[in-house]
Amino acid sequence: MKFRVERDVLADAVAWTARSLPVRPSVPVLAGMLLDAGEADGRQRLKLSSFDYEVSAQVAVDIDVEEPGTTLVSGRLLAEIVRNLPPQAVDISTDGAKVIVSCGSAKFTLLTLPVEDYPTLPAMPGLAGSVGSDAFAAAVGQVAVAAGRDDTLPMLTGVRVEIEGETLTLASTDRYRLAVRELAWKPEDPGLSAVALVPAKTLADTAKSLTGGAEVSIALSAADSGEGMIGFEGGGRRTTTRLLDGEFPKYRALLPDTFNSVAEVQKAEFVEAVKRVSLVAERNTPLRLAFGDGRLVLEAGTGDEAQAVEVLDAALDGDDIQIAFNSAFLLDGLNAIDSDIARLQFTTSTKPAIITGKPADDGAASDYRYLIMPVRLSS
Hints:
CATH architecture of the largest domain: Roll
Strand order of the largest sheet: 6-2-3-4-18-17-16-10-14
Structural class: alpha+beta
Shape: elongated
Distance between the termini: 73 Å
């Protein structure tokens, strides 16, 4: 194998493929990155692949091939080397059981791993539809913040992806908050109805990294195929991941549809005030909010420790309310809305509240809702 490639093109492709490499591979060969140089669709291409039996990643870039071939090298080492090369064309060739990487006056020799032991990457499932890449990345970012991080409850570490015709609904929860986002997409079959539970970290990383193309194609294995898998492709990159098992909570029943109070606050001021006031909050002690008389009073701390108070302007429609939240969870919700004004909807001080942005059309429903459980205050 022997080929030449632009350094920046190679660095970008190697870094992206290396994201999916396992930290502690179950077998040494899974630490490898597969390099396959040759001709595809009438173009000279280098295909880079990684796979850990859960997540696969593959990207193809244009190169000048002198000798086609395939080799397997340590992915993390290759990523470190390429990232630090000078900005010149890179020559990569094989010499027996070694790979030689040359760039300018720099030369590296890497040992190869046995290609024949490397597992075959899973094929992409059947195409389900496509969605704008930027819109998809933004929606996933809004929802993934609420996913659980406790691996003993794997079903809560995922994002539930619901497909119903031309609507894609994403939802995640860690039992203390719930994020739901709806967005339009283009299904292959207008009558398609499907559900998938995708690992949140993988989905968030993938969505962010596929914004190089205008659209992301989403592929989903049929429910009766036995192997639950979802695939994403865009900008010359493709990735697949196994779906999570387990029953996701019936979250729609948690979303209240009537409220006793609705408050609106300037988001940027609210975020800064929450950050300041929560500086005195000890770990797991709540941030207290009191809405009334056209203002919001934020408080943290008690008489036996440091205290903080700040007052903001706030519009309130309905009953005055005092409620308390985990400040980190509150900030996650406020930062996720894409509006200058945060709208908070309450039933009572002991029931979940809903945070949304203020829709451009006041009568329209928000496409993003963040439900947050209040913290009970000891009387």
